[in-house]
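User: My collaborator sent over this chain with a note saying "see what the structure looks like." That's all I know about it. Can you take a look?
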Amino acid sequence: MVELESIIKSLEVGDVPLEKALEQFKRGMELSKECQDTLADAEVTLTKMMTDDGQEVDFSVKGD
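Assistant: Without extra context I'll predict from the sequence alone. Here is the result:
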């Protein structure tokens, strides 16, 4: 995340040569995808809970 923020700041300044800017943009896209994948994995994990016997089950809230 820190590297992605650094790339964004560098590109926002606008004084980066075009070739380097393209490289940074490409790296930023890769990092962004990694962050999205990590968040998606976390979401899946957070929507599951463990039963007493150690099995994962989907978490659901039951109404009255």
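A starting point for your reply to your collaborator: The mean pLDDT is 84.
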